[in-house]
Amino acid sequence: MSAFMSFRRALRASPALVLALGVLGGTAAGFAVLPEAHAASAPGPDAPLTLKVLKVEGNKQIPTADILAAFPYHVGDTVTRNKLDEGLQQVMALYKQKNVGAKFGEKERFVGKTIQFYLTIEEMAPSAAAAPAPFVLDQVNFVGNKKVPTAELEAATKLRPGAQVTTEAVVADTQAIQSVYKKHNIGVQIQPNATQPHQDNHVVLTYTMTEKTGDN
């Protein structure tokens, strides 16, 4: 007998006991099983019953059709309460596979030799997607600056290797280069370009200058 089944039978022996069972080996999603409500005259755990009603409620992230497909029994099948517990484990495995945390509640109703089985699912909010890694500057290149020394452009700009590259920082340095050219009364068009030579978050930033010829 599995520890899970022993736990379930203990719940049935003590209806007032309220516990939560964590699934071992789970992912970041959380799982818990809540004790079900059942009549005092409930049949034994291995007594054969006809499944008359099977309903799933509360699920939003995983479609009901997928849950019913994972549950191995259908309306009209001959089941036992232990078999329904095993079916619940299949639904739990589906949620674990989908990395969706949930709490599961059961309600069982008995009419003669039939059972009505209601599975209530309380899904946890999906985890926020991890923020992408920031771009890190490996190198800065200045290309096409024939009339203004590279050292002067480096002194005017602020981005340095190891710094985080943002759109705002690139725009600010582009404007700083523009100011240097304006100070020298030289017209220029500046094209910044960031590349990822290693296909990761490390970038090489290149400013390509097209200097105007003639008087400005």
From TrEMBL:
Its main location: membrane. InterPro entries: BamA/TamA_POTRA, POTRA. It comes from the Bacteria. PROSITE patterns: POTRA. It comes from Acidomonas methanolica NBRC 104435. It is found in: Membrane. One of its GO terms (cellular component) is outer membrane. Signal peptide: none annotated. The keyword Membrane applies. Keywords: Membrane. Pfam families: POTRA. This is Surface antigen. Residues 135-212 form the POTRA domain.
